[in-house]
Amino acid sequence: MADTSLMEKLTSLCKRRGFIFQSSEIYGGINGFWDYGPLGVELKRNVKDAWWEDNVHRRTDMVGLDCSLIMNPRVWEASGHLGGFSDPMCTCRQCKKHFRADQLEEQIAESEWVQSLPWREWPAPVERPEELQRWSRKKGKRLAPNLALVARTDAVWPGLEDRLRGATVERLDLIRMLASDAKDTYELPCPSCGGDLTSPRQFNLMFKTFVGAMEDSSSVAYLRPETAQGIFANYKNVLDTSRIKLPFGIAQIGKSFRNEINPRNYTFRSREFEQMEIEFFCRPGEAEEWFTYWRDARFKWYVDHGLQSKALHLRDHEGDELAHYAKACADIEYDFPFGTSELEGIANRTDYDLRRHQEFSGKDLTYFDDESKERFLPWVIEPSGGVDRATLAFLCEAYTEDEAPDEKGNPKPRTLMRFHPRLAPVKLAVFPLVKKDGMPEFARRIFDEAVGAGIPAFYDEKGAVGRRYRRQDEAGTPLCVTVDGQTIQDGTVTIRDRDTLKQDRIAADAVATYVRERIS
Ligand code: GAP
Predict the structure, then answer these.
(1) What is the pLDDT of residue 409?
(2) Which of 234, 224, 226 is nearest to 365 (CA)?
(3) How far away, in angstroms, is 87 Cα from ligand 1 center?
(4) What is the mean pLDDT of residues 442-468?
(5) What is the Cα–Cα distance from 127 to 60, expressed in whole angstroms?
(6) Cα-to-centroid distance, 276 and ligand 1 (Å)
(7) CA distance 325 to 327
(8) What's the alpha-carbon Rg for the chain, to the nearest Å?
(9) Whose CA is nearest to atom 19 of ligand 1?
(10) Is residue 474 a contact partner of residue 416, using CB atoms and an 8 Å limit?
(11) What is the torsion angle, in degrees rounded to the nearest 10, for the CA atoms of residue 428, residue 430, residue 431 and residue 432?
(12) Residue 181, pLDDT score
């Protein structure tokens, strides 16, 4: 069940505290594009840094790559994106909005007019169909003006009333009936206005642009819809320059663009987003083993960074769900407040991509194996994650409401972001208890030392100290240091833990070491 109130509270906190803003908000925004504010950019960077450090720096079988966003369009012919990277789309004949045909039922269920229908529990026993007629004259008129029942009540209502009286109906069946006088339409109505939908047609998700001064077919190019193809296109360059041997991986983090028909669920489905992808090349006979290895390693990575394993699911794709080139695929799914959805996919792509690029480029992409003295195309295991999706999952998981004592010791509600310390945007906040008696100067020194030691820190001397703690709890800062009267006498400070609220007293000059130990 979708928890819309949690999502509303989270998006409001993200805006208020500077995690995520709507892109070009002062001009009314642009659907499917998001900006990360001062706290958000640190959180997202920490997600990427943790991924890079764990998958590239801490391994001996991985190298990195950073490819251009626009590539020779032949890349997308070879990869199959030009021919097949599309979603089925239908369009409302009345309001002209577009919808993904394969997500129509979900969008209808979430739409405002469907949610306002007289019956909430489904299947619904219809004892008083007149409630529906009343709905069509009031809420229906406002929310679904193009629905057949609303737009042509006199023609639709008599037949509908007969069918409904005493019946028990499913929600989608009722919705089809409400739209049922429309001829030549997709069977479900428009989620936005109730109008008639066209039959679905394929819509290619790649953003098109032109390279150079001429805007004609010879200059068409595409913004990359995934980072993966840059890796395949460079596989030979990497082999020739790095002397790396099978099995090995190439990792890349970078922007990808998809002209999604219905961007939704905050940053979950955006039109511009970042991916963190690995193409792991191995001997064909070892691919199954490496697939299992990466599937389990990637699942563990999310748990290690704070996602509860009970909210994470590994879902192996069934045979008929697999892409034609994939031998096996598993999704790591997370229980987002809006439903359980994909965080990352791990696929055994066989030698499909290298074979296609070899065919389209005419270049030999085979690998000569010193061990077996054979030449072959390696197989590829691909763990492919979204930076924005991972960041959103960490935000959702971190959001917590509990109670903490105020200055007088009375319990007061508080909101905190329980980020894993490695991901927290700010690691340490430093406060003087009051703005006098040398405390601000002392606190500033601790703050400057922390920043000088490379610890992301924040200094705050405004307002009651309890309020300052709460602001840091909302930002997800794991540790707060307070300089008080005793500090001036003996050089010790209190250091407070965001989650347990426990306060330790430590030497001021031990702060940097203490913080390092806690956040590593
Ligand atoms: N190279 C394989 C590939 O791109 P994908 O399942 O289409 O596979 C991989 O995408 C990951 O990229 C997804 O699991 C998701 O985390 C992220 N992703 C895909 N489309 C996205 C979108 N529209 N907005 C945000 N993240 C997206």
Answers:
(1) 79
(2) 234
(3) 14
(4) 96
(5) 69
(6) 9
(7) 7
(8) 28
(9) 386
(10) yes
(11) 150
(12) 72
pLDDT surpassing 80 at residue 299: yes
Query: What is the chain's percent helix, strand, coil content, to nearest 5?
Result: 40, 25, 35
Distances (CA, A) of 371 to 212, 245, 246, 368, 374: 47, 10, 10, 9, 8
> Phi/psi class of residue 434: alpha, beta or left (left: φ > 0; alpha: ψ in -120 to 50)?
beta
Task: With H, G, I as helix, E, B as strand and everything else as coil, classify residue 182.
Answer: coil
Q: What is the pLDDT of residue 135?
A: 95
Give me ligand 1 centre to Cα 272, in Å.
11
How open is the CA angle 100-262-71, to the nearest 5 degrees?
100
Question: 365: pLDDT confidence band, cut at 50, 70 and 90?
Answer: very high
The pocket around ligand 1, CB under 6 angstroms, is made up of 226, 228, 258, 260, 269-270, 273, 275, 277, 342-345, 382, 384-386, 388-389
Question: What's the chain's average pLDDT?
Answer: 94
Task: Please name the residues in contact with 26: beta carbons below 8 A apart, sequence gap of 6 or more.
Answer: none
Nearest one of 426, 493, 431, 496 to 459, comparing CA atoms: 431
List, for residues 10-55, the tens digit of each pLDDT value: 999 999 999 999 999 999 999 999 999 999 999 999 999 999 999 9
Q: How many whole angstroms separate alpha carbon 21 and alpha carbon 485? A: 40
Instruction: Inform me whether the pLDDT recorded for 183 exceeds 70.
Output: no
pLDDT at 234 over 80: yes
Q: What is the mean pLDDT of residues 153-161?
A: 88
Work out which ligand 1 atom sits closest to the CA atom of 347: 2
Quick one: pLDDT at residue 479?
A: 98
Measured CA to CA in angstroms, residue 449 lies from 458, 459, 486, 490, 513 at distances of 12, 12, 20, 19, 11
Q: Whose CA is nearest to atom 20 of ligand 1?
A: 269
What is the reported pLDDT for 381? 98
Q: Mapping DSSP to helix (H, G, I), strand (E, B) and coil, where does residue 442 land? A: helix
Which of 104-113, 180-189, 479-488 is predicted least confidently?
180-189
Q: Which ligand 1 atom minimizes the distance to the CA of 342? A: 14
pLDDT category of residue 271 using cuts at 50, 70 and 90: very high
Give distance in angstroms: CA of 511 to centre of ligand 1: 41
If one counts every other C-beta atom within 10 angstroms of the C-beta of residue 58, the result is 9
Amino acid letter, residue 175: I
Count other C-beta atoms under 10 Å from residue 110's C-beta: 15
Q: Tokens for 333, please give them.
A: 């799914």
Q: Which of the listed residues 226, 277, 329 should we mutate to test ligand 1's pocket, taking the one with most ligand atoms within 8 A of CB?
A: 226
Q: SS in 3 state form for 111-168?
A: CHHHHCCCCCCCCEECCCCHHHHHHHHCHHHHHCCCCHHHHCHHHHHHHHHHHHCCCE
Name every residue whose Cβ is closer than 8 Å to that of residue 84 and which is 6 or more positions away in sequence. Answer: none
Place of tokens 């697999």: 322
Closest CA to 495 of 423, 412, 401, 427: 427
- pTM over 0.85, yes/no: yes
First to last CA, the chain: 36
**From CA 136, how far away is CA 148, in angstroms rounded?**
10
